[in-house]
Write a structure and sequence with these properties.
Elements lengths: L2 H12 L9 H26 L9 H4 L15
Length: 77
């Protein structure tokens, strides 16, 4: 082994290289913020999904016919 390989093995085996621990707090904060944001999105989506009807096939619930809300039925106001 060359001297460079020996030095690299010692640094990696040591676990306390020159960059060890510098990004850990910021990385942990970012991961926690992303997990909180994902949790809030899941909570919000489940709240919205509870509001939709079980089926969209029932026309009586919507109060509209097949033509849609803006269809002209021939009657004049």
């Amino acid at each position: 082994m060359t001297a460079m390989n020996v030095a690299a093995v010692q640094v990696l085996a040591d676990g306390n290289g020159p960059e060890f621990g510098k990004a850990s707090p910021l990385g942990l904060l970012m991961i926690l913020l992303l997990l909180i944001a994902a949790g809030l999105l899941v909570w919000s989506m489940s709240k919205h999904l509870k509001k939709i009807p079980k089926s969209f096939d029932n026309k009586e619930d919507s109060g509209e016919d097949d033509k849609g809300p803006d269809a002209d039925d021939g009657s004049k106001p």
